[in-house]
From TrEMBL:
UniProt name for this protein: ABC-type polar-amino-acid transporter
Domain ABC transporter, chain residue ranges per copy: 10-244
Family recorded in the similarity comment: Belongs to the ABC transporter superfamily.
GO cellular component: plasma membrane
Residues passing through the membrane, by range: none
Record Gene3D superfamilies: P-loop containing nucleotide triphosphate hydrolases
Keywords in alphabetical order: Amino-acid transport, ATP-binding, Cell membrane, Membrane, Nucleotide-binding, Transport
One Pfam family linked to the record: ABC_tran
Subcellular location: Cell membrane
Length: 248
């Protein structure tokens, strides 16, 4: 990972987002340091996905600013493509290209978007597939893999762009229970290696063990922002207490 500036990697300042009359992000202020792992939790509809999507500008915001690596998010063009390659995103649904092999899924971004040499990318892709434990599946198609393997391939694909940060939006929610662990293990090792991560998840074990901070969102607002032990042992707001009582 190349560090181009000091200071926090991601800064949201007074961010507001509406979908028509619906105010989904309400004056969100958030600063994420390099290497930090921030877990975002909260009820369905509270704005967690919108927050993630705003950070790589899949959703434009209506007011406020978002700064990534020292620069305001670009609105369009090459700079936007560059931003998207620097902020890897992993979704609930694996979103792999069905008609490409696993290896091709991982190499296509660096080759097509970044114009890197195919041989170089291929070597890096194989190393990444090995790291997520599916090197032996490289020549298969997504449908031939289990859900957990597909999600690990999606993580390898995002990492192939050598991102400065990774956003995970409920990466294990669509998986059969027995496959959740293998995906969380990959994410935990990534966290330990110093990747800056924003992770929306209901996996409280991951939040406790891998997060530096837990953010609790409700109704478009950041209600709590605390280290995991503090958040889980002593949630301050009634909304967080209520949420935790339902999921723990
Ligand atoms: P979460 O991820 O916490 O469940 P979301 O960020 O997906 O919440 O959604 C926040 C609110 O915005 C919800 O009320 C949702 O219905 C609404 N919403 C999300 N995306 C859109 C959209 N593209 N158009 C209109 N409303 C949307
Ligand atoms: Mg969501």
């Amino acid at each position: 990972m190349t560090v181009t500036t000091g200071g926090p990697l991601i800064v949201l300042d007074g961010v507001n987002k509406w979908f028509g009359p619906l105010h989904v992000l309400k004056d969100v202020n958030l600063s994420i340091e390099r290497g930090e792992v921030v877990v975002v939790i909260g009820p369905s509809g509270s704005g967690k996905s919108t927050l993630c999507r705003a950070i790589n500008r899949l959703e434009p915001i209506n007011s406020g600013t978002i700064v990534f690596d020292g620069r305001p998010l670009p609105a369009e063009g090459r700079a936007l493509a560059q931003l998207r390659s620097e902020v890897g995103m992993v979704f609930q649904s694996f979103n792999l290209f069905a008609h490409k092999t696993i290896l091709e899924n991982v190499t296509i971004g660096p080759v097509k978007v970044r114009k890197e040499k195919p041989a170089v990318v291929r070597e890096r892709a194989m190393q990444l597939l090995d790291r997520v434990g599916i090197a032996s599946q490289a020549e298969k198609y997504p449908a031939q893999l289990s859900g957990g393997q597909q999600q690990r391939a999606a993580i390898a694909r995002a990492l192939a762009m050598q991102p400065k940060a990774m956003l995970f939006d409920e990466p294990t929610s669509a998986l059969d229970p027995e496959m959740v662990g293998e995906v969380l293990d990959v994410m935990t090792s990534l966290a330990r290696e110093g990747m800056t991560m924003v992770v929306v998840t209901h996996e409280m074990g991951f939040a406790r063990h891998a997060a530096n901070r837990v953010i609790f969102m409700a109704d478009g607002q950041l209600v709590e922002d605390a280290p995991p032990t503090e958040f889980f042992e002593n949630p301050r707001s009634d909304r967080a207490k209520d949420f935790l009582s339902k999921i723990l």
